User: What shape does this take?
Amino acid sequence: MIENNETIDEFLARHADEVEEAVRKAAALEIMPRWRRLAAHEVDEKAGPHDLVTDADRKAELYLTDVLSAMLPGSAVVGEEAVHANPASYEAIRGEAPVWIIDPVDGTRQFVHGDPGFCTLVALAHHGVVHASWTYAPADDRLATAVRGRGAFLDGERLYAGPPEPGRDLRVATSHPDYTTDEQKHALLGLRTPGVAPRACGSAGLEYLAVARGESDATAFSWEAAWDHAAGLLLVEEAGGTHLTRTGEPFRITGDNDLPFTAARDAATARQVVALLSGEA
Assistant: This one.
């Protein structure tokens, strides 16, 4: 708990390892025992056939909500499944209390299909600023962490995104067409140009990790749900990358962004992608 008016940075210095332990334990108790073992009654649709939820999502989120709330008394939680049940709970992101932002299984479609491309995302934010994040890929037992101003790490090794290699097509992960408006589809068509190799994204959290590692050059996403973006955006920032909306401003987890937006390995790549999305290149 925060004691004697300590700052969030001081809280993280004392408890970051405990958050990591909670993320790993949620996966070990609620997610991995169900991977490739889901029964039909454990999978439901939310908005449609591409928007799935499983018992693993629900139970892992409940576990993390209980543990993280107890760890930081007075904090709020914005979890994907809780917001689906009560959309008004999303407003905690704009509130005065520190907020845990949780996506228990990012990449639920992949999880349901037995693919290892899913992860658990947790971020701690306050007043719209993400202070720390945890990205855990349990099928591969890979954990990426970031604390604002202290760098990004994958399994304890420092991450540096670095600029893309000169002369090679930019590798850009983009929103699936099912999740875009007609205007956003038109904007994303700007990436279909020589020198850019766009592809449909998988788990957003793992796409951000790929950018932070320098395995991918940028993302171009068209939705704002903070649980998909908060952890990864900080990871990219702390690896030396950046993120921009089409207005040239950083993406805000509190919303009202000009979409699509990008997260990229470096500022020059971010500006290039934004120009293409805006029809200015």
